Amino acid sequence: MNVLQAIQYIIQGWNEVTADTIKNCWNHVKILSDAIPRDNDEDDDSNIDSELNRAIKALHLSDMMQVKEFLTIPEEDVIYEFLNISEFDDMFKTGLTDHPDEVDDSFEMEIIHINEALRSLKTVNLFLLQQENAGKQIKLAGKIEKFIKKRKFNSMQQTTIDQYFV
Predict the structure, then answer these.
(1) pTM above 0.85, yes or no
(2) CA 66/CA 112 separation, integer angstroms
(3) ∠ at Cα 115 (114, 116), nearest 5°?
(4) Looking at the record's lineage, which domain of life comes first (predicted)?
(5) pLDDT (tens digit, 9 = 90+) per residue, 111-161?
(6) What are the helix (H) ranges across the chain?
(7) CB-based contacts of 24: which residues, under 8 Å, 6+ apart?
(8) DSSP, res 34
(9) Could you give the CA distance from residue 53 to residue 47 in angstroms, rounded to a whole number?
(10) Residue 4, Cα to own-chain centre: how many angstroms?
């Protein structure tokens, strides 16, 4: 047995556990207080749902949605879908997968060096100088330039060993 088979067995076993089994386990170990009603959870839920539905109807909203429909997220019904053997084999042969959990949608931000940022800011500043009524924007570009130059100055300072132990 490998890890994948073990995980598949665990998922299959967990899917076979019913809510009644879990309730019986809690009742058996007597962790829950006797003041908590144990058997009428589903009745309480339906009562709450019907009360909420009545309250929503009282609002007379157009395109009204039932509480169950609003609270149920369809994507959560599927926990995991098993691939058949050929799909599983193809996935490892090609190295590609279409499964949404496996798609690499990460974005690596490009590192922009201080000198490149200053050159680009100089271009923006030249553009702003050519525009009418751009005084505020030119001042903002000046503030950004001061910020970048301060970063450049701080990055050029020699660090002491004491700074690593603060």
Answers:
(1) no
(2) 51
(3) 90
(4) Eukaryota
(5) 888 889 889 999 998 998 888 888 899 899 899 999 988 888 888 777 777
(6) 3-15, 19-29, 41-58, 67-71, 85-94, 114-129, 135-156
(7) none
(8) T
(9) 10
(10) 26
